[in-house]
Amino acid sequence: MRNKLIWILSLGHMVTDINQGALPALLPFFIAACDLSYTAAATIVLAANLASSIIQPLFGYAADRFSKPWLLWAGLLLAGIGLGMTGLFENYPLILGLAIVSGIGIAAYHPEAAKQVNAHSGSRKNTAMSIFGVGGTIGFAIGPFLVTSAMIFWGLKGTLILIVPVSIMALYMISQVSKLERVEGKSDCQDSGATGQVGTENWPAFTQLTLVVIGRSIVFYGLNTFISLYWIDHLHQSKIMGSTALTIFAVSGVLGNLMGGTLADRFGSKKILLFGFAGLAVLLPLFCMVDHAMLSLCLVFPIGIILYASYSPSIVLGQSYLPNRVGLSSGVTLGVAISIGGAATPIIGKIADAYGVWAGIMSLACLPPILFALAMGLPEPQPGDDTINRVTSADSGSVLNSDGQ
């Protein structure tokens, strides 16, 4: 049953992040229909992302204090209905407001879902979190294709297609709420004891990890934004080749996510972070030194795998540093830290404008050694730091067996 819940939460993550992936694809249609400027259109994305990232820790705090699984289905509905209704109106403030509602829904889902994954993952927390992360990665990829296809067929009102998956998933999630409440309530009771505290909080370590996550996010958003342009402007390839490189980078993310979680459960979260940043410290400069398109394409795949491999270990490590505030930890590492990293992308753009896109990518290559040094200073989780929501094996066993099933 618990194994099933991990996959349900991952599927919910996918459906939620379809809306995050779809929003940028809506902008050309909004610009044409509402005569928006590029700045106004970009503000829609910025407002939705800010709403999601800033509010996410608040929902994480609420998840820690009250632990309400209903936030899962409520978040799903807000995320899809908010964005799905944008196509019914040509009023810019209303579109902006609905995008913010969608962002709030996304913010509501992530911390509670990440806490639930932690609660039901037994000793395989990194593997379970990687499965959860893959759901989001797939959702981002599906979103643009789904909404663009719908709007080509039905016009601006095609945004209503976004309401369908969240409605189906929310109804199914409602049917699972009793299981989520029953298992989490049992594990909380077993682990917290009379004190209600399950471990020592290490805020300095969590702050240091947050800086690491921000740095990793800068590298991710920088590559995701400029890889295609690098192929076109620096390697003088076609737009199709640029798109192919970006697709390979995205596909590598799915594999890297799963590999990172499995290896972190075997060798430890910190070791996978160190391995990832050490690998990037070698591969990114090598990528910049290679001027052959096919060789560069061959390097994109391992770069993507190594970069994405650090996703679940960083979240689980943060949860272990704040074992009494797993929801808050998840809200920061999944929301605020990643968004701050994304906000640094214009700085990379300024470097690319001034010195060329090669210099922009090369500036990203300077970060992994710094991140490696920061990660080196992270303490290893102490035994028992992950005890929050851990259920004893006598009760029901681990969520995943040795094969990850």
Textual characterization of the structure:
This protein is mostly helical and 405 residues long. It has two domains: 2-192, MFS general substrate transporter like domains (Growth Hormone, Chain: A, Up-down Bundle), CATH 1.20.1250.20; 203-376, Up-down Bundle (Growth Hormone, Chain: A). It has helices at residues 2-34, 38-66, 70-84, 92-119, 125-154, 163-192, 203-234, 239-267, 269-289, 293-309, 311-321, 326-343, 345-355, 357-365, 367-376. The N and C termini lie close together (12 Å).
If you average the pLDDT, what whole number results? 83
Could you say what the CATH architecture of the largest domain is?
Up-down Bundle
Classify the beta-strand content into a percent band: under 5%
Helicity level, as a percent range? Answer: over 70%
- Kindly, what is the distance between the CA atoms of the first and last residues, rounded to a whole number of angstroms? 12 Å
Q: Main beta sheet: strand number and arrangement? A: none
Gyration radius, rounded: 21 Å
